[in-house]
Model the fold of this input.
Amino acid sequence: MIRRVLKLKEDIKESKLREVKALQEQINNLTKQLKDLEEHLEEVNKQVKQDFSYELVIKYRSLQSKKEELKKRIDELEEEKHRKLSQIKELYREIKALNIIKEKLEREQTIRSLNIESQLSGFLYLIRKKFFLLILLLFCFSYSQPALQKKLKSERERKAKQEISEISKDLEEKLKRLEEERRRIEEFRKIETQKPREEKREDLK
Done:
């Protein structure tokens, strides 16, 4: 919208500038005519002074009237030119203000675009992050069962080894107690075996 308004204002400005140029050309032409007329008037005035006649006086007055008309026309053209220049000046101010507004809107649009791109980048980052997490979860899910089975197997083996170790330790302790019991029994038997012999010796005495 603002671009169309700017284009319209620029076209009006260019049109006004062409009009001012045309007016200036008219003013220049009329100014030249006025200068030539003034020179002619000066010559006629000299002739009247040298050789007075009614014809020369009438001619002089006619030229003087034409001079006044030229001056009036030049003044009118100058006034119209200044009016158009004022319009052009106002157009320049309007165009400058519109350009400022356009630049502001373009900056705001750029900022909005950057914000959208930033939000989109953040959104894409989140999507990539979520996608990565999803892939990671899928990977973990794909390998979780074998890994879990391996862990459970390792745990069972550890527990089995621990149970075997505990059983072995318990058996060793039982064997140790049995061995100690066996030694006590053997010592007791030895003692019991020696008693009859000692008693027999006592009887022989």
Q: What stands out?
A: Residues 2-144 form one domain. The chain has a mean pLDDT of 76.
